[in-house]
Here is the input.
Amino acid sequence: MPQLRYMDAINEAHAEELARDNRVVLIGEDVGLKGGVFGVTAGLQARFGEDRVIDAPLAESVIVGAAIGMAANGLMPIAEIQFADFIYPAADQIISEAARMRYRSNNACACPIVIRTSYGGAHGTALYHSQCVESIFAHVPGLKVVAPSTAADAKGLLKAAIRDPDPVMYLEHKRMYRLVREDVPEGEVLVPIGPARIARAGADLSIFSYGWMLRECVAAADRLAAEEGIDCEVVDLRTLAPLDKSTILASVAKTSKALVVYEDNRFCGYGAEVAAIIAEEAFEDLDGPVMRLASPDVPAVPYAAVLESWFTLSQDKIIEAVRRLAHY
Amino acid sequence: MPTDVTLPQLSESTYEATVGKWLKQPGDRVARFEPLVELITDKVNVEMPSPVAGVLLEQVATEGDTLPTGAVIARMEVTETQPATAIAADASGASSPRTAVDSRPAPAEAGAAGPRLSPLGSRLLQEHGVPPAEWASIPATGSGGRLSKNDVMAYLAARAEHGPMALPATDGAAARGAAPVAPTASEGPPATEPVATEDEHVRLDPIRKAIADRMARAKREIPHAHAMVEVDMTALVRWHDADKAAFEQRHGVRVTYTAFFVRAAVEALRANRFVNAQWRDDGILVKGAIHLGVAVSHDDALLVPVLHDAQRMDLAAVARGLDALVRKAREGHLGIEDIQGGTFTITNPGVYGSIESVPVINPPQVAILVTNAITPRAVVRDDAIAIRRIMNLGLSFDHRVFDGPQAMRFLNAIKAALEAVDPLTA
Here is the structure.
């Protein structure tokens, strides 16, 4: 099985789907000639032409609005928002139009678009290039939201998202683009939207996470098992909406303790919903409080390195949170 | 049926009491637990509740008599008996009307002394048909005395094999093995020694005399050793300044530094069992429960009310327990149960500004923790001089029972807990 970087897996999914179905088009800032600000879409315009890989003006509302219009006319567009931090001008198009199209038209009209965006903090990305937006969009009925944590899932979930008949928000954590290099199955391997994945089986405590944080959780769990004998199960949620509750509840039934880890700031973050579901539906399986580990409720990731490390979740912070819950 | 009313043992180390004012006269009808007579001990003055319901026949002891524990002080005609077991059965909830509707009693119905259970623990015990009365006897290893899932599973496994666990003997019963103290009236200058006119001879009240006897005995018999560490209280002080109001709003009680000291000490005692112990000539009695004496000064008298089963309490419960004890102490309402059975003591001369104190152990305990004043000091952190809130934390310990390394382990555990204080898990 070939080893691909996370960004290459995304590129490969684009290439395969553009080749498979000529209704698939890609639109976004710098996705064509430049190949994407991170190089994720490199080579696609040269191969598929300017009509199918479209460089858009710096106007997020136009990018998503045009994609919705294309979808209404039979295409299957992928709209790239360069950074999730800049998605808000398009929020009206996404929330009020794309997500509600099928409902508003009484099922006459669907909106099979994918909105891809890079999210999350990497070193030095600071206020304008680090935001997490999943809780805002997972809240909206009619939107599906995925956040793959492996290269294989990045490819398989993107292929599934492109083929999905409804709008899918596809969140790719920018830190993984070049850092993650893993086995990725070739060709027609789709990862269905919906099911979560047990990333690491364990007996003592369940950790729920997604995206880059999932990888930090697995690494922390491996250290805890080796150094302290605490055996964590780590569940990769992968699809944030619709959420795979049965895998979550089965894991809690097994371990009796739950920690939800998310990179966004804590208050009203995505993990709050996961915690609430566990509290409501697994109450009598719990041997301790459902805990959240998230970033502090301050306006943005600070730029200064020392403050950035104070803000940012790390393996050490995860280990500390697990330790406290395990010993509860 | 006439029955003798005897002088109860009022606390672990009290073997006599002076009869004060009779509150009931011969012929009076007396309800169970109704105050019968005042008793004056070396520690507290209490109103002795009648152990039975009936009619007072005779006051055998008269006001001013000092009698040993067990002496007959009254005779009563008993009109009804209500064995203690009947009360315990009621408290278990087994016969309460509520169970007719809901066959799953809430954990709280196991009584105030019931274990702290998670939803899972509660469900498992109910699914396995373990009666709530049995829950308190399950050994708990979770933080703050919680019964963890593993505790419950281990108990269920043991119970399946050996049947229900016998209830452990009460601490009081074990403690009574200690030898009584001989009266020490012969010590000190004779009362007949002449007193110069400018001097004043103050007679010892029972409390002063008791303190004197106990302190002298402790220093005479116990080889005291001492250790002290510096605790950086900056984080805790900050938390206390910023969040004590929120804590009070949330839990309905003020949280004091003492509450944090108690919580940290309890966890450290759990990890260092020999500090929570008693010296005996034939061995060391390691105590299971942690009954924490907290020294309180009132009207120049030193009282040591006891926070019972502190190992079961989280920070809010400790704060509530301390608040209740301190209020009772200040109002002179401490009952016998509030002062007896201590297994370890914390004293806080820091509130009076002491920065370094060497306390005397309170026998039959084997150690006493002292918290001193929290003061801003210039200290070195990361090779720079920083202003931090520092407290000296000291331990006096009975060197017969353990040695310096254990004392330092104990002190360092408390130091670490206070420096990493997190009210979320305190």
